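Slide 14.
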Amino acid sequence: MNRLMCGVALAAVMMSAGMAQADQYLGSYQARISENDKFASDGYRLDTVPQMIRQDRANFHKFGSGDPEDQDDPWFTSQDARARFERLLGKSGVMLGETRNAIANGEPIIQVDVYKNSVRVDIVGY
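Slide 15: predicted structure.
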């Protein structure tokens, strides 16, 4: 029984190590998602939280109108990179329902953890 438990534990460690290598962590940044980030550049209200987070990066990088809490990032400086970011967040991103609600209905500070093939968004403040 003891050998079986050790084998199961070893398999679990190897699987988690393989998954970690499959999606390499690149870094993170923090930003406030304010009311300004909930509107597209041409003025219409955005429909989804991934669109709002993408607009936050456009406001910061393209328009120079970030919020005081917004941090720089090296990943989403171009329009193409922000479009990919929105797709990743919609498909393989990790974001709890409570995080989505806080962004849609408030002005939280988020942390975005950036991986090679995905992103994770968490609330870190209000």
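Speaker note: The longest helix spans residues 2-22.
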